[in-house]
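Minutes, structural biology subgroup

Action item carried over from last meeting: produce the structure token record for Pantothenate synthetase (Bradyrhizobium barranii). EB confirmed the sequence was re-checked against the source entry. Recorded below for completeness.
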Amino acid sequence: MQTITTVAELRRALADAHRADKRVGLVPTMGYLHDGHLALIEASRAQCDVTVVSIFVNPTQFGPREDLSTYPRDFQRDEKLCRDAGVTIVFAPVSQEIYPAQFETFVEPGELAKPLCGAFRPGHFRGVATVVCKLFNMVQPDVAFFGQKDFQQCAVVRRMAIDLNLPIEIVTVPTVREADRLAMSSRNRYLSEEDRGQALAISRGLFAAAEAFGLGERNVDKLVAIAKRHLETVDQLQYLELVDGDTLKPASSPLHRPAALCVAAYVGSTRLIDNVILQPTP
Ligand code: AMP
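Output recorded by EB:
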């Protein structure tokens, strides 16, 4: 495995792979890797000859009062996990490599970036789309892997790839959970033991609604109410919304198209997100 920190070196390292028409997979991350990231790496390894993992805590996707400076980091551990997982290249640039002086060109996503997290994190998806587009240009992967946990991110990236004619297949990998069903997240390390107990309300609520859906409930308000009952105990519920799986606009009753029940909540001072997909069978 190679660890690379500059774009020039990255291009050199990938030149042979591209010339030989090898299938290159990219797994973009902000590091502090866990089993969710490893599932993305595994998916890439299964279908690509070369797997590039980027580790970059992207400043442009953090708001001024968010956790950029305290975001968990442990590069040595990440490097070892990548090596053990069979990654070909770890790309870990410093910020100036991605955002040189006088940087001023951004990718501006549209409607998909407005609801859900977009409503609470202004500029977040602009930062995400920009850095992902830049990573796509640097690595020129055939396929890129993203986690379903960040459902809106997947939608924004997919749209961007279509709208900007980026010849890259976007694969969404199902959310990996702890044994008690808490969605894995680098931010889980902020949780105290008490927070950890409270955080379980999120997946409990989502799975209660998914179960009701499985038993035939198709009414949007009722499904949301079922999830909400569990979420009453969290410190601050930012949103709990059932949205259309493609447009991310509010889903309509009775549900007849794939939809996502999405949550963002603060547990203590930690913001957590999660979702379940509800897929009506025809
Ligand atoms: P992050 O490092 O949090 O920016 O995440 C990097 C990638 O890993 C994103 O595509 C996330 O959606 C994905 N990811 C994060 N947590 C999980 C999880 N629990 N299961 C699957 N993918 C995840």
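Discussion: The longest helix spans residues 193-214.
Next step: EB to file the record with the rest of the batch.
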